[in-house]
Amino acid sequence: MHELIEKGTPWTLKEVGTDPEVIKQNETLFSLSNGHIGTRGSLEETHLTPEFSHSKSTLMNGFFDTEPITYGEWAYGYATHHQTTIPIPDGKKMEMKYDGEVFDLTSSDAKDHNRTLDLKKGILTRSYSWKTENGHELEVSIERFVSYDYPEIMAQRFILTPKDDNNSLEVSFELDDLKSMGKERDKEDDPDPRKKEQASRRFESDDLEFYDADMLHIKTHASGLHAVVGNRVVTDNDVHQQISDKNRDSLSFYSKANQTIVIDRFVAYSELYKEESLTENIIDNLIRTLKNVTESGYEKVKAEHISTMESFWEHSDIQIDGEPALQLGLRFNLFHLHQAAGRDGKTNMSAKGLTGEGYEGHYFWDTEMYMFPFFLYTQPEIARSLLMYRYSILPQAKERARTMAIANGALFAWRTINGEEASPYYPAGTAQIHINADIAHAIYSYGEVTGDDAFMLNEGLEMLVETARFWLEWGHFDDNRGGAFVINDVTGPDEYTAIVNNNYYTNLMAKKNLAYAIEWIEKRRRQLPDEDFNVSQDELTEWKKAEEHMYLPYDEDKQLTMQDDSFFHKKVWDFEQTPKENYPLLLNYHPLTIYKHQVCKQADTVLAQFLFLDDFSKEQKKRDFDYYEKVTTHDSSLSRSVFGMMASQIGEEKKAYDYFMDTALMDISDLQSNTKDGVHAANMGGTWMSMVQGFAGLRVDKGTLHFSPQCPSEWERIVFKVRFQKRLIQVSMTPSSTDYQLVEGDQLTIIENGEKKTL
Ligand code: BGC
């Protein structure tokens, strides 16, 4: 069992000791965020001991800089600019000098050093006892949290108890040395494309401007973004001397044996904004926020934070009896998922949340296909904000479609922050046009689960229409295939197979996208017969024709669903001769070497089947699962959860369980060996999906909620809640029975394994 779990409780992860490698590894895991700001779990004195840190960054959702992409060989329509999230001034830094000595974990004598992440409360604590060379002791305890109630605020409390009289204690706080931002980060010359940082990451002096009252205005070089950072330090103890410079607060005390000194610090990060002229206003607002929190006091702000966290858990927890390690792993994933989501309709969820700079902070299809279901069924208002973000970038998506020579409709960027395509490698980037249908799928599910017609008939429908339009022009009716609608030259979810014709997943999702648009246009026409939505009858007829005639590749001889037209014509990858250290393949083989083989990075056809279980017979699903499992490396963290859920569907209980354990503990056990760059947020969403949509078999069909529970025999009981059409339902599953309770809302009929049940 992993040490963090072993030492923890069902709600806490505990790290004990001072091993730099362990502390470094936990820097990602101990990250705290609230969807607006996120700060990695680094030590307060990391600037003195960089060997304990991979990157101590604090990140703001949506704060990025751009830089032109330089191509060795350019072609029309390539993405033009990198977008790279850049760390903002880090407010965790603290330096402590006691009895003439400066504390750091390498040279100081620290005992009982430990850190605990309390998932229930959303608080990271650290404590140790420090003995100076003169033998004088100081007990130290530090708390940190990022508030959900005040999204701008990161709060810290320092509790220092000297054991002797009359020693001088100096505690200094600083916004991280701004000009060296990024410099202290591990700068290995690492070609790994999953982490590569492209745009300039540093602020320069004229990007930083101090105003009165510790207010720092920061701006990016090229992307035109601004934010303000403020800082307040408060103590009720007798301060011998306090020196406050703009960037630094230094407090000195004289020790009294066993008399505790408490210092609170609030660091405030404004919203990000685009017009410099707003700065004064933003500063005023931030000063007000800082005043509010300092007047309320640390205890009260903390109590509010804990109560917000508790109400989150009240609705979103998954309780699992009989497996303490899994319980903790599961909660850890839900905790980070919750932390990652932008909540303002202008930002989204990056592949790493706000826990690291991997993938440059970009938003991918990960959001809609992996993270979204958790929010949809537990906090639908956040699900709506995530969709509103997509709506906010619809103009850029239309523009992108024009660049791709598509006259009507929209193509969402494969990876982006500001809505523009940021993938410089189009075979595994822009070619993944399935993102359009992924977004449409999330929109449609949102409508089914929430009944929010106001959204669906307006913003939702507009996106369904624009994405549907795109398909009609990208694909065509192919006479050589009896007039079937084909979609050529795309890349499906599996990034080890690129630029193919008729990727099954893409075609099926496009078919659904068309069906969703048709259904909602017709609904709107019924509800608002006098209002035109700018879709002609001819256009609708064409969509219906494409939807009906969508080509879905199938191999009749093999009785297998084909991942795409050419997949079975390729040679199967020689797995036996591939040494372990050559995985992930993407770091060890040229893309073409990979593409010409039958080898999958992740679930593709199997994912399509998981999403539309009823479209396939059990035998078909089993045949396809068996086939594709053999050629899948799971080099992508998005793979295992899907294979696990399908294993459960086809009755492969042992496999389902094993895949699920890997999924649930992926980051804690660093299964992909790159957790240092940030958590795998999509996989965390996959964990929730595995439990609720996998083992409990939740799905919605024609507006009705279905369950097909299969609780593994290893578990005593699983309890979770879901929201569905203004109801709150609690589900308790054991290996032998399942109980459904209506906690809130009107009577509801659900279907369990084909049988109606009224709650
Ligand atoms: C996966 C993609 C995913 C991206 C970001 C890649 O490794 O293949 O499916 O969107 O990571 O998580």
TrEMBL record:
Belongs to the glycosyl hydrolase 65 family. Pfam families: Glyco_hydro_65C, Glyco_hydro_65m, Glyco_hydro_65N. The active site is at E495. Residues 15-269 form the Glycoside hydrolase family 65 N-terminal domain. GO terms for molecular function: carbohydrate binding; glycosyltransferase activity; hydrolase activity, hydrolyzing O-glycosyl compounds. Substrate binds at W365, D366, K601, Q602. Coiled coil: none annotated. Residues 698-759 form the Glycoside hydrolase family 65 C-terminal domain. This is Alpha,alpha-trehalose phosphorylase. It comes from the Bacteria. Residues 180-201 are annotated as: Disordered. It comes from Alkalibacterium olivapovliticus. InterPro entries: 6-hairpin_glycosidase_sf, 6hp_glycosidase-like_sf, Gal_mutarotase_sf_dom, GH65_N, Glyco_hydro_65_C, Glyco_hydro_65_M, Glyco_hydro_65_N, Malt_Pase/Glycosyl_Hdrlase. Residues 331-689 form the Glycoside hydrolase family 65 central catalytic domain. GO terms for biological process: carbohydrate metabolic process.
